[in-house]
């Protein structure tokens, strides 16, 4: 059974992390950069563990040096999204990788990304919105720079602010200043937590940063009181099962808590995170959820409605997407 044509919303995708390896390889060749060590014999990204994954990711990002590179990257990524029936995607975009946090440079990168997104909406039917993301292991001071870039460019395209990176670095409260700045600029908030960290990390992220969505959040399953709090506060989890299994945050698909969370009443959505790094895509995620947990069209429809309600876009966009999610009659 192929789910490629099911219309899908994806809320958790890192723009650079979605770069097809062949695209990054091509850019490296154009710029005469030697990053051959990050690819295996089949041309896929290769790395040993999560820390090495972050280093490989950053090495791939060294090929992305200009707004034009990001314009091409955005088109390449949205083409992949369209192949898997994605009609709406929110991607994480880091000022750290787009001009090093310089506001003027950031605006130029953003204009190029937005230009590519407008083109993809016309030609591919994929609507793309951006979530500015600070990198946790770059530290709290650097995060403020990302938050400033986010606040200055909040609007129709930049709709949210978030944080990714190594979860064991610092506590959520260390980034409160940045999240407060983004909230005051009208941005919606999400944050990675509970992928590697325990329930306390998820609880602190919700309480200290005011995140309304949590990236991953899977370790909340170990704390009944936290699950009650997540449900009461209507927090939505951006779950990326293939990523969790590939990086061994969860041992196997059968062990993945997404179905238990859903059954418990937690709002879950499905995303790919950094798909080529984890040898996955939205079609495969759907196929695995169908195979392992018996998710059917009704379950997928329910999860898409959760994603639609949790999307950070404006209501006009949401209404358009709602129409596209309606089954053909
Ligand atoms: Zn992520």
How do you describe this structure in short?
The chain is built from 13 helices and eight strands. With 329 residues, the protein is α/β, with parallel strands linked by helices.
Main-sheet strand order equals: 1-2-3-4-5-6-7-8
> What's the alpha carbon Rg, rounded to whole Å?
18 Å
Tell me about the biggest sheet? 8 strands, parallel
Average pLDDT for all residues? 96
Q: State the low-pLDDT regions, or none.
A: none
Mind telling me the CATH superfamily name of the largest domain? Answer: Metal-dependent hydrolases
Mass-distribution shape: globular
Provide the list of bound ligands, each named once.
Answer: zinc ion
């Amino acid at each position: 059974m192929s789910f490629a044509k099911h219309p899908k919303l994806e809320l958790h995708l890192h723009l650079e992390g979605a770069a097809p390896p062949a695209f990054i390889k091509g850019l490296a060749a154009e710029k005469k950069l030697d990053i051959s060590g990050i690819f295996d014999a089949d041309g896929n990204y290769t790395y040993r563990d999560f820390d090495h994954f972050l280093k490989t990711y950053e090495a791939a990002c060294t090929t992305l040096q200009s707004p034009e590179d990001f314009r091409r990257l955005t088109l390449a990524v949205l083409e992949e999204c369209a192949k898997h029936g994605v009609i709406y995607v929110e991607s994480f975009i880091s000022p750290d990788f787009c001009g090093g946090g310089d506001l003027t440079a950031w605006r130029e990168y953003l204009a190029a990304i937005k230009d590519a997104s407008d083109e993809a909406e016309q030609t591919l039917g994929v609507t793309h919105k951006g979530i500015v993301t600070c990198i946790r292991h770059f530290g709290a001071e650097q995060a403020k720079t990302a938050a400033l870039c986010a606040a200055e460019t909040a609007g129709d395209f930049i709709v949210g602010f978030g944080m990714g990176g190594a979860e064991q670095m610092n506590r959520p409260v260390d980034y409160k200043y940045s999240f407060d700045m983004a909230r005051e600029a009208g941005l919606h908030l999400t944050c990675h937590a509970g992928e590697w960290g325990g329930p306390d990390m998820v609880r602190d992220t919700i309480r200290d940063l005011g995140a309304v969505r949590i990236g991953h959040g899977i370790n909340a399953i170990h704390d009944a009181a936290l699950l009650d709090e997540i449900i009461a506060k209507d927090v939505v989890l951006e779950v990326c099962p293939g990523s969790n299994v590939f990086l061994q945050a969860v041992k196997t698909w059968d062990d993945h808590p997404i179905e238990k969370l859903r059954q418990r009443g937690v709002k879950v959505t499905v995303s790919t995170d950094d798909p080529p790094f984890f040898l996955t895509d939205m079609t495969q995620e759907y196929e695995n959820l169908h195979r392992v947990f018996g998710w059917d069209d009704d379950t997928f429809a329910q999860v898409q409605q959760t994603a639609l309600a949790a999307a950070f876009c404006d209501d006009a966009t949401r209404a358009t997407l709602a129409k596209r999610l309606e089954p053909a009659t």
